[in-house]
Design goal:
Chain lengths: 269, 377, 395
């Protein structure tokens, strides 16, 4: 498409592209070194390199607790969302299901309903159900937000699967249960894992619902970062951000690897 | 040379072959089968008997219902009405995994997460065959199709032909009642396809398999089958041996779908035993053999295969029409000659050695009454 | 015997049922609770239940009856949560001023008098003889009310029950909705202005250039929203990198105000939402055969014409669904305005959160939430339509 582009247009394209890439990446890159700043201000220049803020994450009760909470709540929400989302994706695949597309649209709604709106409703309901300020309540709230990601991911790998494989397995004598266990399940496993990873990342980053339904005991890392930015800006935020970015890169790498492996296995060389 | 003047009745049709000598018994029976999706009838009140040990091809254009029949046999599609029996027992409500039928799919449907050996072992594992016995049978089967050197590869690492053979082996290893094949050679290139046709024929003969083979490729059906069922619009137009299908098509659809044919419209004039005179609408009188009953004066079509049309300068044959050569096309093993005259147009395939025909040359187109078929319009 | 189609249908229903039940309880029910709260008013009713029953039977014509007075005294003698009582009085006062003193005087008189002793309300306060106070009380009694929904758009019912505009300085919801719309629209326009050329460049490039352009979009998408907002916080503050850099090169002497104002909110939100614009346009452009532009050129189209008549129409569906997505998500934004915005940059979500957690005014939180929910749902359904049949918009 850019075969005979004029030089001026070409230069404009390069300048524009570089500027946008800078705009997109600079903030993320800029925050990383501050995690190692010894200064008590979350700002440049870097006085000297130190790991004191990572120590702070470990020793400060609020930060340490919030990290543990995030791991507990993230795991819980991931398990709930992955199980329910995978089952639903399998059900939605059936051509015999009436109103399948309307049901799918409804299942994806948590992705678009503003978190504050859902949070207000949950806070009211949780008060009545006695779920307010409980781990179970936060896990469930996060799971609601995570489900669409699992559903999309698992549905994607189900769609990519050759529909004849299951028929082939049953013609070879496998009962429906065994078809699922030995054929469907292993083939869509990368999709399920990708969905689970997305679910965990979503839970890790969730703030709004947590604000509404969690008590001080369920304060998550994201919630703690929110409070820290809002109230007393401490470079511990940069250290937490550093951990999250590194975690994200690992997760992105894992998802990339899973996709690559499943493509290699499913597509002819 | 072996063409019967009048084909035997359909119930006894079947080329006598080394694998299935003796009287044919109905092994699988499809009785008054219909299937509709919504208001659309894919299969319409169809009867079909499949004999043990035969190679039956279901041939027809796409959407003619042939694949639906195969899917019904395999148990993936439930007939809307009618019954399917295997050795006298109803199987139409049996789920696919309890039918013991080997299926070879168009895209092979090899399990991508299993090796070749694991794919082939799958049906044995499902049947609870002991590990050692399964390993032994898998090894033997893989050896038979000469895939031992790639038995530990995943399907994605195999060529199309190798995948095809793995799919076939997987469908045979558990000694199924019947092997159902859904255009299994469609994805292969021409050379490999022809090679696999011969290999399949050989396998059928050697193992005494019962094979139901769906294809839209007439050459494939003619090469391999004991019998061919020609499908059209959810019904079987004709069920007969390849020779009978080719030389004596019973319907216009069969005549036109299989091979190439010259078709002349006319009226039955006078009947003399099996031999009938037909007055073509264009004028000439043609003599032909009747396969079905026609009343005098009934409208009829005369079908003559191009390779049965002879060209000569003089003729006193029963059917000889004066024609002019319109065009000649060199086709390698023969010449294709387009002819017109006596109010009709036709095509002849003639041996290159006999004579070179110039465009515009005058000649007689001749054909043997035994080699033309009269069919209802 | 059950047909296989029936069995397959039951199996599919069984598989979606757990999620269906889960979302009914934890997604639909909360939203329904919020909606009900937006049309329910139990503040006065909860404190004065008997009065509510008696007043419901009163036709509002004629003088107050002794029965009404008796039930009010009975209610006032009941032990009651002082917070709830305060809410009820405030609510009554908003119907008709004067209730504050009237209620406190009457309540203490009712509690002071002995059990079962009849009280003459008019003697306690002559205003009880005036029917308008009883009418105001009757108006505040019904369980279902439209006052929150009306108040959400700065409307109220006057004494005669007609809908009227609210006093300009009492509430500012319309202004906040307009602001929310303006911020979301500016962010959408900025995203489109940056995203469309960026996607075109990415689709036209190859190899490592394309890889870098795509990673630059995907990496922020993967990074925590909080991390990105914190990063902008660092960059935009008065002593932040941007101001420092501008001062160093001598463009400014005083720091530009970039944070806690509209500029900061729009910059940070554009950064966060830009990937949602680039990706749909980019994937739409990828479906264009690579030889289409040369084909257009060979048909005699000039480069600009080829761009306008071939490339742009093909990028248009992606631009439309990207814009809808960005706008829809931006409308409900909370975190970014809360952290990098000032008091005048708070969007509707912040107001909802304020009503819910700050003042526990569930009615107002519910009413504003309902408006945001309806708008978002409509946009989502339109989005679903668009992205299902992308060619529809192109033609």
């Amino acid at each position: 498409m850019s075969g005979q582009t004029s030089p001026i247009l070409r230069i404009a394209q390069i300048v524009f592209g570089v500027a946008v890439v800078f705009f997109l990446l600079a903030p993320i890159v800029a925050i990383l070194p501050l995690a190692f700043n010894s200064s008590v201000f979350l700002n440049y220049p870097i006085e000297s390199f130190s790991s004191r803020w990572f120590g702070e994450l470990q020793s400060n009760d609020m930060w340490r607790r919030s990290i543990v909470n995030s791991l507990i709540i993230g795991s819980g929400a991931t398990i709930v969302a992955t199980v329910l989302g995978t089952l639903a994706a399998l059900g939605l695949r059936s051509s015999q299901l009436p109103f399948a597309s309307a049901i799918r649209t409804t299942f994806l709604m948590p992705m678009v309903v503003p978190a504050v709106v859902l949070g207000v409703g949950m806070q009211m309901l949780y008060g009545r159900l006695g779920l307010a300020n409980s781990y179970l309540g936060v896990v469930v709230a996060h799971a609601v937000l995570c489900i669409p990601f699992v559903l999309v991911s698992v549905s994607g790998s189900l769609n990519a699967m050759d529909p004849w494989l299951e028929r082939a397995a049953s013609s070879l004598g496998a009962s429906p249960t065994r078809v699922f266990r030995r054929i469907t399940m292993p083939i869509i496993m990368p999709g399920i894992l990708t969905g689970a990873v997305f679910a965990f990342a979503t839970s890790l980053d969730e703030v709004v619902l947590t604000l509404f339904v969690a008590g001080p005991n369920q304060r998550t890392l994201a919630r703690q970062m929110f409070a820290s930015i809002r109230e007393n800006i401490s470079p511990a935020v940069a250290a937490a951000a550093f951990l999250m970015i590194v975690g994200t890169l690992c997760i992105a790498g894992l998802v990339g690897f899973l996709r690559w492996r499943s493509q290699k296995a499913l597509k002819p060389a | 040379m072996r063409v019967p003047l009048v084909p035997p009745p359909a119930s006894a049709v079947g080329r006598v072959n080394a694998c299935c000598e003796g009287p044919l018994s109905a092994f699988i029976n499809l009785e008054r089968i219909s299937k509709s999706f919504g208001t659309f009838k894919v299969v319409d009140d169809l009867d079909l008997e499949i004999a043990k040990g035969e190679f039956l091809s279901l041939l027809g254009p796409s959407g003619s219902g042939k694949t639906t029949i195969l899917m019904m046999l395999a148990g993936f599609v439930e007939p809307s009405s009618g019954a399917i029996t295997l050795e006298g027992k109803r199987i139409d409500h049996l789920p696919a995994h309890r039918r013991n039928m080997g299926v070879v799919f168009q895209n092979y449907a090899l399990f991508p997460h299993m090796t070749v050996a694991e794919n082939v072992a799958f049906p044995l594992v499902m049947r609870g065959v002991s590990k050692t016995e399964a390993a032994e049978r898998v090894a033997r089967a893989i050896d038979m199709v000469q895939l031992t050197h790639i038995k530990d590869r995943k399907p994605a690492q195999l060529s199309g032909g190798q995948q095809q053979r793995v799919a076939l082996t997987r469908a045979l290893v558990f000694e199924p009642n019947v092997v159902l094949m859904d255009e299994p050679l469609g994805a292969l290139d021409k050379q490999l396809r022809e090679h696999m046709q011969l290999e399949l024929r050989e396998l059928h003969r050697r193992l005494g398999l019962t094979i139901v083979f769906v294809t839209h490729d007439q050459g494939e059906a003619l090469t391999m089958s004991n019998r061919i069922a020609v499908f059209n619009a959810g019904q079987i137009e004709q069920l007969a041996s390849p020779e009978a299908i080719y030389d004596h098509p019973e319907t216009r659809f069969v005549a036109e779908f299989i091979g190439e044919t010259n078709m002349f419209a006319g009226k039955v004039e006078a009947r003399d035993g099996a031999r009938t005179k037909i007055r073509l609408d264009a004028g000439p009188m043609v003599e032909a053999y009747l396969t079905t009953e026609f009343a005098s004066g009934a409208a009829a079509l005369v079908s003559v295969r191009p390779e049965r049309v002879g060209l000569s300068e003089t003729s006193n044959a029963a059917n000889a029409m004066p024609v002019k050569v319109l065009d000649t096309v060199y086709q390698g093993d023969h010449m294709r000659v387009r002819l017109a005259g006596s109010g009709v147009e036709m095509v002849a395939k003639v041996d290159r050695k006999t004579r070179a025909w110039a465009v515009g040359a005058e000649a007689f187109a001749t054909f043997n009454p035994d080699e033309c078929t009269v069919i209802a319009p | 015997m059950m047909s296989s189609a029936m069995r397959a249908r039951l199996r599919a229903l069984g598989l979606i049922m757990p999620l269906m039940a889960f979302l009914l309880v934890f997604f639909v029910w909360p939203l329904a609770t919020m909606m009900v709260a937006s049309v329910t008013d139990g503040t006065v009713r909860g404190v004065l239940p008997q009065t509510a029953t008696v007043l419901a039977k009163w036709d509002g014509e004629g003088p107050p009856t002794p029965e009404m007075a008796a039930s009010l005294v009975t209610d006032l003698r009941m032990p009651v949560d002082s917070l709830a009582f305060g809410d009820a009085v405030r609510r009554l006062n908003s119907e008709l001023s004067g209730f504050r003193s009237l209620m406190s005087r009457t309540a203490s008189a009712a509690k002071g008098a002995g059990e079962g002793q009849a009280l003459d309300l008019v003697a306690i306060d002559p205003r009880w003889g005036d029917a308008k106070y009883w009418l105001a009380m009757k108006r505040a009694m019904p369980l279902y009310t439209d006052r929150y929904l009306l108040a959400a758009v700065d409307l109220e019912r006057d004494a005669s029950g007609n809908v009227a505009g609210l006093d300009a300085n009492t509430s500012a919801n319309r202004q906040i909705m307009l602001r929310t719309f303006l911020i979301a629209a500016s962010v959408t326009l900025l995203c489109a202005a940056i995203g469309l050329p960026y996607a075109l460049i990415a689709a036209a490039s190859k190899g490592w250039v394309r890889a870098i352009l795509l990673i630059a979009v995907l990496l922020p998408l993967w990074t925590s929203l909080l991390v990105r907002t914190a990063a902008w916080f660092i960059l935009l503050q008065n002593e932040g990198l941007i101001n420092d850099a501008l001062k160093t090169i001598g463009l400014i002497s005083e720091p530009l105000p970039l944070i806690f104002n509209r500029t900061g909110v729009i910059i940070a939100m554009t950064h966060v939402l830009l990937p949602f614009m680039v990706l749909p346009i980019y994937s739409g452009l990828l479906t264009i055969p690579a030889n289409l532009m040369p084909a257009a050129a060979s048909l005699g189209a000039s480069r600009i014409k080829a761009f306008r008549h071939v490339l742009l129409p093909l990028a248009f569906p992606g631009l439309m669904s990207g814009s809808l997505l960005v706008f829809m998500v931006a409308l409900g934004y909370y975190i970014t305005p809360a952290l990098v915005g000032g008091a005048n940059d708070q969007m509707i979500s912040s107001v909802i959160a304020f009503f819910a957690t700050g003042t526990a005014n569930w009615g107002m939180a519910g009413a504003l939430g309902l408006i945001l929910l309806v708008v978002t749902t409509v946009l989502y359904l339109v989005y679903g339509r668009l992205s299902r049949s992308p060619t529809m918009v192109a033609t």
